[in-house]
Specification:
Structural class: mainly alpha
Strand content: under 5%
Helix content: 55-70%
Radius of gyration: 21 Å
Order of helices and strands: HHHHHHHHHHHHEE
Largest sheet: 2 strands, antiparallel
Shape: elongated
Number of strands: 2
Length: about 290
């Protein structure tokens, strides 16, 4: 189990490297100015983003040991599990075929890998490709922050110890259930990473093409598909309950949208003024995001 988990994180970083190689491998003609070369929706401060990435990637690696280092699930814990306390939303996770769990786990890894490299398609767009370095930094930052939230926030498995659905299946042996990794059901890091990647792609494309107007919401709808498919396979693999997948999608989508938005903020997005009431007086800062 630990080896598989480590392989998943290795795959995560390898795919980031693949994106770097892809983005740098641009043809000579792309060096020429494009018609909309003056339009740059993002403003990346390298002095801020650089340290964030350095610290973030370091804590990502440290977090792996924390998530993987949990003690085995005791036999008494497994014997005390009661299916009747599982809510209706999550109960579907207890109706799967354990004999197909391993295959579905492999499928989920394929979907995750495809989702992570999917934003590389953005660089086929000339207006986006001209800012490839900034986009690459933002993407790496987005994935790093998403992983840090998974590893270190109170919602993630470092502080939550929800047992995976696999531990509820009487058909399986104790040896198949006891891994400490089975304490990491809540929430789905696979799904969060996939959602962060696909929603990042939709967000960046729509910011570079404001002419699409409200059609951008079709992009966000399409961005839901990979994490939903991934979540389906994670449930079939007995790795997560439905609520684990839903929370993963929510957190990943927020990271994929908000982190590029922070880099898009201009002064006209922010208003500064005085605030006064009977209780207090102070300075008010208002941010108006434009999704």
């Amino acid at each position: 189990m630990k080896k598989n988990k480590a392989n998943r994180f290795s795959c995560y970083y390898l795919t980031l490297i693949m994106v770097i190689i892809f983005s740098m491998g641009k043809p000579v003609y792309s060096q020429q100015p494009v018609s909309d070369s003056s339009f740059h929706p993002y403003h990346v401060n390298y002095w801020v983003t650089g340290p964030i990435l350095t610290v973030g990637l370091t804590t990502n690696l440290i977090g792996i040991t924390t998530v993987l280092g949990k003690k085995d699930v005791a036999l008494a814990e497994i014997q005390s599990l009661d299916r009747s306390v599982i809510n209706n939303l999550d109960y579907w996770s207890l109706k799967q075929d354990p004999s197909k769990a391993s295959a579905n786990g492999v499928y989920s890894d394929y979907v995750l890998g495809a989702s992570i490299v999917l934003p590389g398609l953005l660089f086929f767009d000339k207006s986006i490709k001209q800012d490839w370095f900034d986009i690459l930094l933002m993407y790496t930052e987005t994935m790093s922050i998403t992983t840090n939230i998974f590893e270190w926030s109170f919602l993630g498995p470092t502080f939550q110890n929800r047992l995976r659905p696999v531990t509820y299946y009487e058909q399986l042996t104790y040896e198949e259930k006891k891994s400490g990794h089975n304490r990491n059901s809540f929430y789905s890091g696979h799904v969060a990473s996939a959602a962060a990647s696909t929603f990042f792609m939709a967000k960046v494309y729509s910011d570079y093409h404001p002419e699409i107007g409200n059609n951008k919401y079709f992009l966000y709808a399409a961005a839901m598909v990979p994490p939903l498919v991934l979540g389906y396979f994670r449930i079939k693999a007995l790795k997560h309950f439905t609520s684990d997948v839903m929370v993963g999608i929510g957190i990943g989508a927020l990271c994929g949208i908000l982190i590029p938005e922070f880099h898009r903020i201009k002064y006209e997005n922010i208003t500064l003024g005085l605030y006064s009431s009977l209780e207090a007086t102070g300075v008010a800062i208002k941010w108006q995001p434009k999704f």
